[in-house]
Design a protein that fits this description.
146 residues; single chain
């Protein structure tokens, strides 16, 4: 089981690394959403660290914070939205909110894995959350090189 957890953490770290190394440099300005996403990233890191030692209490705290940040992010708008023609904005906001809903569902599944103290399921979900976060970030990141 420890080997499975270690493998999952390494894999997740590799997924998240491209996003973490350049995440701030790709933002044109600091926003509330940017701060929330940075906090979410830090809580995800804390979760992965707690998972590596199967510290269920710390895992729960980090997941609860991630869930709060996800709910708060629903009230924000990605900067990229403002670069789109007005007629495309509702579709992008719908995709953004669907992504948040998917993340919320994954976090609820993670809570169930914690409740069952199923480290393998939690590891799998951490990988899925990492992949989802990477894909969402790529889809919504504003190109600030313009």
């Amino acid at each position: 089981m420890l080997k499975t957890i270690t493998t999952a953490l390494l894999t997740t770290s590799l997924w998240v690394l491209p996003m973490t190394g350049s995440a701030h440099s790709n933002h044109c300005q600091d926003t509330q959403l940017g701060e929330q996403m940075e906090s979410l990233k830090q809580q995800f890191k804390a979760y992965r660290q707690a998972l590596s030692t199967t510290d269920w209490s710390q895992m729960r705290l980090a997941r609860e914070e991630m869930l709060q940040l996800t709910h708060a992010a629903a009230d924000e708008q990605p900067l990229k939205l403002h670069d789109l023609p007005v007629e495309q904005r509702p579709e992008m906001m719908q995709e953004y909110r669907q992504g948040l809903d998917q993340l919320t569902e994954l976090l609820h599944q993670l809570a169930q894995a914690e409740q069952a103290q199923d480290a393998d399921a939690a590891s799998d979900l951490v990988g899925r959350i990492g992949q989802h976060s990477k894909q969402s970030h790529e889809a919504l990141r504003k190109d600030c090189d313009d």
